[in-house]
Amino acid sequence: MLSTIATGLAIDAYGPISDNAGGIAEMAGMSHHIRERTDALDAAGNTTAAIGKGFAIGSAALVSLALFGAFVSRAAISTVDVLTPKVFIGLIVGAMLPYWFSAMTMKSVGSAALKMVEEVRRQFNTIPGLMEGRAKPDYATCVKISTDASIKEMIPPGALVMLTPLIVGTFFGVETLAGVLAGALVSGVQIAISASNTGGAWDNAKKYIEAGASEHARTLGPKGSDPHKAAVIGDTVGDPLKDTSGPSLNILIKLMAVESLGMGGNSSREGDLLVTGPMLISMITEIWVRLITENDHCYRGRV
């Protein structure tokens, strides 16, 4: 498996490089035929990126499976019986977590994008000469919005991943936690693959129409037509799917298994899996409250 690392990294890196080349060509005001070539490279990059993400997802699945086996061994669980009510409930909860996590990340992307749009509108309305190109926009504020959102908006999904093994292991025991890990692994891998492939397909659908890559694409109309508007909407959903939700699910399935193994391997008695669970829950809750309070003070200060 290690022999394919170089190929996988090259395939995965090709997509962002070609995408950035297109963005640089557009910002530099280069000719239209250069932009057409970079669009073709970007479309191919989306396909290769989906392949590279497939390698990453497969790697995360194997790592999580190995960690699950180590957790079962350290917790002295002889069998994980699906017919056991605790395990069955854990499977249902674990299978639900990737959907919940994906919904939270998608919502975070939408919230950050809305803040960025509002800031851009504010600058166009308040900075004289910006529409005519006689003034420079405030780039630092836009960068600050995206940076703050990338950190603060990930607190709820991160808390979901960190707190779930603690709460389940502390109050429901090792068998339920084993079911949660198994359910999250099976469900998370499927959603990650689907999100990566679907997002890349929707992104390429928009480029397919804009480039007029075939006779059928040319019949759909130019930019601004109804099919193109529908493709833009699909691309708006597809970008966070393939760039945010899909790759982040790898972290979910691995981090939950690592945390369960690291914190729960010392005890296998029901309700006593995570001896330090209540203390960690209190610490994380205190950090959460402090972050929310600080964010609220900053917001009031801006208002």
UniProtKB/TrEMBL annotation:
Q: What Pfam families does the record point to? A: H_PPase
Q: Name one GO cellular component term.
A: endomembrane system
Kindly report, in one word, the top-level EC class recorded for this enzyme.
translocase
Instruction: Give me the segments passing through the membrane.
Output: 55-77, 83-101, 160-186
* Entry EC no(s): 7.1.3.1
Which top-level group of life is the source organism from? Eukaryota
Q: Where in the cell is it found?
A: Endomembrane system
Q: Which GO terms describe its molecular function?
A: diphosphate hydrolysis-driven proton transmembrane transporter activity; inorganic diphosphate phosphatase activity
Q: Which UniProt keywords apply?
A: Ion transport, Magnesium, Membrane, Translocase, Transmembrane, Transmembrane helix, Transport
Please tell me whether the keyword Translocase is annotated for this protein: yes
- Tell me the InterPro entries matching this sequence: PPase-energised_H-pump
What is the membrane topology here? Multi-pass membrane protein
Protein name per the record: H(+)-exporting diphosphatase
